[in-house]
Structure formats: C-alpha cells, structure tokens
Amino acid sequence: MPLVARLGSGIPLVARDRELTRLRAALAQAGEGKAGAVLLAGDAGVGKTRLMDELAAGADDTIVLMGRCLDAGETGLPYLPFAEALSTLKDVANRPALAMLLPQLALPAEREPGTEGMIAPSLVPGRRPEQDVGQLQLFDAVLGLLTDLSERQRVLFVVEDLHWADASTRYLLSFLLSRLRSQRILIVCTYRADDLHRSHPLRPLLSELVRLPAVDRLDLTPFNAADARRFVDALSDDLPEDVIQQVAERSEGNAFFAEELIAVATCDDRTLPSALADVLLSRVELLSPEAQHVVRVASVWGRRVRHYRLHEVTGMADLAFDTALRELVQHHLLVVNDDEVYSFRHALVREAVYGDLLPGERVRLHAAYARHLAQRLDERGSPAALAHHAFESHDLPQALKASIQASKEAERAGAPAESLRYLEKALNLWNAVAESDRPSDVDESVLLRRASWVAGTAGQPERAVAFARSATKAISSAQTPEEAAEIWLRLSYALAILDGNEVEHFQVLGKAFDLVVDRDPSPTRARVLAGKASSLRQQRDDDAARETAELAIADGQAANAPGAVADALGTLAILDDHAERHDKAKVSFERAIKASREVGAFNSELRAWYYYGLMHYDQGELAEAARVFNEAGDRAKETGLTWSVFGLEIRILQVLVHYYIGDWDYAAWASEPPGMSVSSTVLARLASASTHLTVSRGDLAESERMITKLRSDWHRDIQIALINGGTGAELALWRGRPELAVERVTDALAWAHKLGGPWMLAGIRIGAIGIAAHAEIAAKARRKRDAEAEKNAVEEGHKLAEHVRLTAENGKPRAGVLGPEGRAWLARALAEESRLGGSGDPALWQQAVDEFAYGVVFEQALCRWRLAEALLGADRREEAAEQLRQADEVATRLKAIPLLEAVAACAKRARITLRADEPAREHVDLFTPRERDVLALVAAGRTNREVGEELYISEKTVSVHLSRIMAKLGASRRAEAVAIAYDRGLLE
Asked: Which pLDDT tens digit goes with each residue over 436-454?
C-alpha cells in the first residue's frame, strides 16, 4: 500500500489567529448575554471546517451543536443541519413540534391541504399571506429549545456549507438570527463564497442577514505565500525542498489543495498535477479496484452514506467490502463517523469522483439506489431520495410517485418550500408518464390544488393563484361536485390574499357555492358556506352573512367538519359585534375560540381572539381590550404562533392599546421587532406601530430614521401609511418643522384616498395633526408679520378641518357608528382649528380633554397642555395652572420628553410653578423670570405685540418690562439693551 500523507488537522492551526480570535471574542460576548451570529465565507478547501473544529475544541463550558447542509439530492430531509445538531440532545421530547424536524420522532398525521386546521384566513383584516402553521410552530420550538439551553449553559451552534441549504433551512436560520437578543448563543454559518453565482438562492438571504445588528461577516481568505509555505512545511515530513516549494506555490494558498498535492507527492510518482480535480482523481487511481468501486458508489449517494446502504448497493462480500473501506479511510478519502456513517473528507473529493463517472455507470448506480430505497419508504426522507435517484436513472413513473410522497412528507415536516418543489417535479413529470403508470389515487387537478395551497404557505401568493387557476382548467366531468367545489374554493382563498382581486374572489366563491348549494351536507359544503358567509360580511350584507354562517355551522356539525364550524362561529361573533349585540358577541367569540381550540384550528382561534379584542377596542374599553389581547398573545406564544398572521395582528394591537392606556414599558416590549428587515410587510407594520412610542418618548433621531425608512414600505400595507402619516407629522411638529408636518399629512391623505377612498376614518386623526401644523405655520407667520403666509395657513387649516368633518359624517366605522377614538380625534381636530387664529377656544379644548378620557392618557395630557394655553389666552390663569400640572404629571410618569418640555416651557412663560419640589434659586438674577423671557423674545426679533401673545400678557405690560430692563442695563433703546445683555453674558 502506498504511503499516506498527514492531514492538516494533525498539525497546529496555521495563520488563522486573527479569525480565531474574532470568533472566540464573539463566543465570549455570547456568554455575557449578547447573542450573535457570524457568517464565515471562504472558497472551497480554504479551511472553514478546520477553523470551526478549533473553535469548538476550545469552547469550554459550552454546549456545542454542529450540523451540515448537503447538496441537493443527497438527502430527503428538510432542515438537515438542525436535525443533525439537535438530534444529540435529550430534552426534545417535551416539544412536540420538533417531531417535524427530528427523524427519531414521529411526524404529525397527514392532512389534506385546505381542510381542518388549515383553512385560509378568510377573516383577515386587509390582505395577509397564508402561512404554514406547522412551520411556525417548528420555528418557535427550535428558538425556545435553544433559548432554554442557553439559560443553563453557553451555546455554540455551527451550520456548515450553507450554500447547499434547502429553502426551509434558510427560512429557519433567518428566523433564528433575527431573534438574537440577550440569549447566550453564538451561531456560526459557513459557506462557499466562490459558489454564489448571481441567481444563487443564498444571496438574498445573506444581504438580509448582514443588516441585522447581531450578525457579523468574516472572510476566510487563502494563505499568503509565507503562510502557505509554513503550512506545507508543517505537513511534509521528508519531502525535498524543491517539492515543498512547488506544492506551496501550486496550492495558491488553499489548505485542502496543499494537502492533496502533498498526498500525491508522498507516493512514488512525484509529478504534481496542475488542477485540483486531477490531483484528487490521481489519488483515487492509486487505490485497489475494489476501493475504487466503493468510492464511486458512495459518490452517487452524496457526501455522507450509511454503512448498510453502501454495503447493499455495492453488492460486495463482507470481507472485500471492509477491506476496501479500510483502504479508503487510511487514504483519508472517507472519514468514519460515530453513527456508522461514512463521509467524504471534503465535498470536493465527492464532486471529483462523481464527475468522473461515465454516463451509463452513473445511471446504473442511481438505479441501484432507487431499488434499495423502494424497499425502505418508511424511513424519513426516503421518498425524496427515491424521487431523485429514480429521476436520475430515467425511471419516470417511479420518480412521479416518489415526488408526490416526498411532497406530503415535507408538508407534514413543516417545510412548505420543499413540499412545493416536489409537487412541481411531479407536475413536470405528469404528462411524461403514461396514463396507465400514473398513481391511481390522485389526478392533475388535485396536484395543482395542493401546489396552490403549498405555494401560498411558502410565501408565494402569485404562484398560488397561478396553480389554482390551472387546477380549475383541469377539472373533468369525472369529478364530483364536491371535488370541483374544493378546487374553486382553493382559487377563492388564493385570490383573497392579493389586492385588486375582490370581484373575481367573490365570483369564484360563487362558482363553488353553486356546485354544492343543492347537495347534501358535507365537509366541502360546510367550508364553502363558511367562506361565503365571510365574503358576505365583507360586502356588508350582514343578514345574508348571518344566515349563511348558521347554515355552515349546521352542515359542519352534521358532516363532522369542526374547522368550518369554528370559522363560521367567528363570522357570527363579528356580525353580533356589528349589530351592537355585544353581550351576544362575547358569547359567540368565546364559542369560536373554544371550538377552534378543540380541533387544533389555531389560525381560526387566534382570528377569534383578535376580533374579540377589537370589539372592546372599538367600544373604547381599552383596559378590557388589553386583557383580551394579552390572553391572545399568551395563547399565540403557547401554540408557537406568535409571528403568524394573527399572532402579529394581536401583537400590533398590544403595542397600540398599551401605548394608549399609558403602559409604555409593556408597549415597548411588545413593539420589539422579531428582526429581519422592515421589507417584510408584517414587520414593517410592527415597526410602524412602534413609532407612536419612539416619537412620544422623544427619541426623535431614531424616529426620523425609522419613519423615513418605512416610507418605502407604504405600498405593502395601507396601515403603515396611515400610522406613519400621523406619527411622521407629529415628529415634524415636535422638531419645530410644521411645513414638513403638512407635507407628511398631505402625502398620507393622498395615499389613503388612492387605496381606500376619500373617507377613510384614519383621516380624522391625520387631519387633526395637519390642522395643528397649519396653526403653527400661521403663528410663525404672525410673528414675522407675514400676513399673506398667515392667511394661506389659516385657509388651508380650515379646508382640512372641513375634510375631517366630512370624513366623520361619511366614513364607515367597522361597528357602524363612530366610536370613542373617532369622536376624540374629531374633537381635537375642531379644537386645533380654533388655534388657527390664536391661542384657541378653551371650550373646544375642554371637549377634546373630555373625549380622550375614555383611556388614552397621552393624548389627553397633550390636550390639557393646549387647553392651558387657551385658558392663559383668556386670562384664566388658575385653571390653566391646574391643567398644566395634570399634563406634567402624566408626561413625567410616561417619560414623554417632548410633551414634558412643552408643558414646562408654557409654565415658565406664564410664571406657573408646576411642582412643589421645584428648586429655589441659588443666586440673585439681575432680571426677574418674566423680564428674562421678554428680553429673550426681543432679542429674537419679536415685536411687543408678538411678545405679549407668546407670554399671554398685554402689549402694555411688555412695554413696562422693557423699560425696567433698559433701566437695569443703562440702555436707551431696545437694540442697545440686547447688545449689552450679550456682552455681559446675560443672554445665551
């Protein structure tokens, strides 16, 4: 047997101190409660795996979890690196969702897409994507497990070869990295930088991940000339100097290439091939014929193959097989793992061997694996592997059947992207397989309907519609009305997700309804009726919606379709709410929640929770709404659906309700984004809701950054525009830029008009803020004695106030009548209108204060501030002082810095003491506080009349103060007094 060279892993690490130090620093930070992730990029063979081994070996008091992605076709398991890493843990049985991930646990029972527990969200507010409940639960379970582990011990999680990751693995990784906060976790992902071509699916994920604050990128470059020589010197024992130099130069700094060159040079033939593939194949050619046969068979399966599988497919006797394996291991071509798995030492070895196979040889070996797998379809991942090997061996009927099975298994494993991939493969094969060889239990229309559902849950709504349309064209006369109705129902669900398809959605649902309206009760009929009821409710035909929902409940109970029953109960509860039968609505919502929970229809349950809380919100019962939304949030967390469609809707309402009632710490917690970029619609909506808090607390720079960034996301959801149109204008007002506030209000109202018509109720709030901006512009124009600008601002303010009045009259509230929130903002709009000509009408501001008394503490405090200004303008000082003190108390408790400063400034100008504990003066000032205020305004260029208006005193009183100031300074004119004050440092 030829001599065997040493591996690089047998020598100390060379020239990687800088990279290893950075990784160890990141791990140390993780141990201190600052979770992080590192994306390690490098060419194939540059030493990424060795660096990870070194990091893991030196990680004391750390749970080390390692998993590797494999090339497409090598495995049928989605989430493979996570399954590999977590399968070594013992405390996974108490997390049922992990059964979708770990082969040793049983998969959930198979479900037909679109049926119980998987109903598309027909009651969704606006357009929201369909989501796979199982996948969300799996993601939450993995995050929960890693978080729990990190509470006991620091965790190092390594994912290797990310460039080969399946779509579901990429989604799960994005989910985890975006939620890294204070867990004691470091996640390191390695990938081949040289493999990322322009259309590689990893590229968009990397561009998303590197923007996350917890994620760092580290490039592992090839050795320089000196380091390459050091590496080769350490590896070679007795090679001549010229060979060592030649290896160092030819390896181009690639550690794996250097190892293979030394392996060739160690043999008798010292001629060194120039290409890496030639180097690897020259090593294989030195093996015995039996060992060459084994390594070729292994290359067809993939980088890792189990002992029993390789033994069976090679067809060799035990002794010959073991001898060949021993030879491969001794020559460092294969590595033995603890679980009776043989791995190629490097993926490049496998690629070279597989690429060297003759076409006929490759087909025969794939066929051998297909025969082997066909006897083991009960093993997790076997259908997907069989689909691959049958296709590569040109057995298309077998590939078709296996692809359909693989799709079902992937769907049960919470991997909709992989399920869709196998369904697409099956659909591509359908017409290439003779009718007699196709599966008898499925037809093309069923596959298309499944593909539509899976595409929707995989986040591809446009393709979901396309598949569903194709399914309707494939309906045949042989299908029952129920089967055809399911296909039309599927298309209606897919259409409901995308904007602009409302008319077609109703028409398509009508086709499904017409097919079953005269049929006996069935699960399909119950589902169609439930969808029809929701559709009628959205069209405001409440009587027909109620009748249809009751029929759906009756059918569902008769035909054992509890999911449809739960869906229809939710519709009935909303209808009771609209009819102002709130006690009955409460009972209906609780029935819907109970029914959904009993059948595991989690989306329907959270939907009912959402509308239950919304009912209290619309009635102005904010404390009760907070209670319901908190219970709903707990339930979403319990079911692993915190970030599902309705989980996020509930979370957003938690932010808003707790902001309104003044529990800002809770609102801050609830508004903490789960990560990823705000390009995601739901995450942009959550970030948008959080701007209420950041603006009101005075984090103005961050608010400006976020609001500016969110402007590019307005097209994703109108709620983003409606919220940020208002908060952006409020921000501009606090920063003293009323003109910008008007621009933002105008932009938001135009957007609302375009997407929701002229009378969207959010226009009341946005309009009120816009009127406030016009009032500030008018006041500024008065100070500058710009009559034309003042006139324009006043006119525009009155126009906007009229728009607000018309919106209140013509808008269509969800509950039928304008609720407490709408009435409060209308009152504020009218009060702001009174400020267009001066300090405002105390009676109108008092009404605004009273209207916000239903529980919105910050807005009420802000109105108290404006009421105080109006009272001071009416010379009602004592009443103003009381309002300012109440506003100050709320602003102090909430840490609402802008309002706190505004109240303090108003009190200072009016010489009102806000708190009994205000510090006494520690030195005698040349001027009284009022004289100092007058002097500052005069220095700013104000006239006596303007000073009086701003300080709520008469013009004559201003003249008296000025006379005293000039006497104290020895000045004879206003300008001279200002100049002397500046010279003496009495003015800043």
From this structure: 999 988 999 999 999 998 8
| pLDDT at res. 213 | 85
Positive/negative CA dihedral, 75, 80, 83, 85:
positive
**pTM of the complete model:** 0.69
Contact of 766 with 722, CB cutoff 8 Å: yes
Query: 9: number of CA atoms within 13 Å, CB side?
Result: 13
- Start-end of H helices in 579-621: 582-599, 602-618
Structure confidence at residue 117 as a pLDDT band (50, 70, 90):
very low
Q: For all residues of the chain together, what is the average pLDDT?
A: 86
Distance CA 288, CA 291 (A): 5
Show Cβ contacts of residue 988 under 8 Å, excluding neighbours closer than 6 positions: none
Q: Show the tokens assigned to 446.
A: 């069923």
Residues 28/58, Cβ–Cβ less than 8 Å: no
Angle formed by the axes of helices 359-374 and 382-392, nearest 10°: 150
Six-digit token string for 143: 């995050």
Report the distance separating Cα 367 and Cα 363, nearest Å: 6
Q: Which residues are CB-contacts of 847 (< 8 A; sequence separation ≥ 6)?
A: 827, 830, 831
Residue 523 has pLDDT above 90, yes or no: yes
Q: Can you say how many angstroms the Cα of residue 229 is from the centroid of all Cα atoms in its chain?
A: 47
Chain centroid, CA 343 distance in Å: 36
- Give me the mean pLDDT over the 257-264 stretch: 79
Q: Tell me how far apart the terminal alpha carbons of the chain are, to the nearest angstrom.
A: 91
* Of the listed ranges 20-29, 204-213, 276-285, 611-620, the one predicted with least confidence: 276-285
Q: Give the burial string for 329-351 (b: 16+ CB within 10 Å, else e).
A: eebbbbeeeeeeebbbbbbbbbb
CA–CA dist 892, 887 (Å, integer)? 8
Which token pair is 660? Answer: 């309104």
Residue 869 pLDDT grade (very low, low, confident, very high; cuts 50, 70, 90) = very high
Q: With beta carbons less than 8 A apart as the criterion, state whether 870 and 842 touch.
A: yes
For residues 613 and 653, the answer to whether their CB atoms sit within 8 Å is: yes
Whether residue 365 contacts residue 357, with contact meaning beta carbons closer than 8 Å, is answered with: yes
**Residue 245 contacts by C-beta under 8 Å, 6 or more apart in sequence?**
229
Q: Looking at residue 672, what is its pLDDT?
A: 75
Are 878 and 857 in contact by the 8 Å Cβ rule? The answer is no
Which ranges in 302-443 belong to alpha helices (H)?
307-314, 318-330, 347-355, 359-374, 382-392, 396-412, 416-430
CA distances from 347 to 189, 202, 261, 482 (A): 17, 18, 17, 51
pLDDT of residue 411: 86
